[in-house]
């Protein structure tokens, strides 16, 4: 057993050394810091695709971190694969751990995981220290005057902006204390195959987002322009700091883009305060909706073969690239839950499998917004007309033709699987019945 006392910093969804809150505090503690990453089998075992692109992305970022630690700091990255509690039980036998540092996670299962690890560590007289890192404001930092959490975005945003000061987006100067990384030889990195996966062939977006900010407000709704930042993957896994992005938004006076970052904090807050909304309707009366859940129609939606071009282009983009434009996400989600009357959870789960930037809080929030069952939701009687959305946001059909090769061939491109007018009337009737029965 290595008797030398040390601190372990646990990388999770914060895969960077610079401006990392908990890593900064760990290094500043003055005790040598050994970084750790756990390929969590509780999470990985739920993934059906052995070439899941997110695992490849994480693996590549872990490789970069390991190289950075070895070449610049004569340290390394301890990499384990298994259930977190089992991993920690073994680490306690192998190292003289004084404390464990990590950053908060707000998902219900992650909170349970952290509580179990914390209890295990405390039984072994090891402190567990967790910090805010993946958002600007969290938990009880933005509340209504009566102390209750906001469930409507606009007043939440007003208070968020009123509270924002440079202090909140100032970078943590990790570099000042990097001499405290634990000095060790290069540690082992298991192969993707050893953890049960294979390399994905999907491309990942880079971290260059500044160029879109100037015209973001004017162009962001038009999917053919590709005028969004594509930064959500890096935010999801923490390869970029939220503080850097907010600082840039403030400097560039990109208010609309900043608003999108505030939505992210808002959905973190909702999930934290109302964990039931991860699996059930936030507005419980919407759990009474009698979904049709037609499996053939769901398969057509998944494959991008509904006969509604904007829906189909979006789904094909998702299936091929792991990305879908946000305007199109709203259209396809509304179509599934309202035109087809398929439970929003089916769509949420499909997105969870396919999206590179999948974020439970934002994804559930977006789906419930579309279905009318969430916080700050679109009223149930507001039903997107996919044809009108197409005319408004892709009138020249550039986006549609990019993703639907057979669009101009009437013998190959399918006819609409539902009639918009009939589907709308059916949706209104079913929703009214559900809400009347509560």
From TrEMBL:
FAD binds at residues 216, 228-232, 257, 260-267. It comes from the Bacteria. Keywords: Chromophore, FAD, Flavoprotein, Lyase. SUPFAM superfamilies: Cryptochrome/photolyase FAD-binding domain, Cryptochrome/photolyase, N-terminal domain. Its cofactor is FAD; (6R)-5,10-methylene-5,6,7,8-tetrahydrofolate. Gene3D superfamilies: 1.25.40.80, DNA Cyclobutane Dipyrimidine Photolyase, subunit A, domain 3, HUPs. Residues 5-136 form the Photolyase/cryptochrome alpha/beta domain. The record marks 291, 344, 367 as: Electron transfer via tryptophanyl radical. The keyword Repeat does not apply. Binds 1 FAD per subunit. GO terms for biological process: nucleobase-containing compound metabolic process; response to light stimulus; response to stress. Coiled coil: none annotated. InterPro entries: Crypto/Photolyase_FAD-like_sf, Crypto/Photolyase_N_sf, Cryptochr/Photolyase_FAD-bd, Cryptochrome/DNA_photolyase_1, DNA_photolyase_1_CS_C, DNA_photolyase_N, Rossmann-like_a/b/a_fold. Belongs to the DNA photolyase family. PANTHER family: CRYPTOCHROME, CRYPTOCHROME CIRCADIAN CLOCK 5 ISOFORM X1. This is Deoxyribodipyrimidine photolyase. The lineage of its organism: Bacteria, Pseudomonadati, Bacteroidota, Sphingobacteriia, Sphingobacteriales.
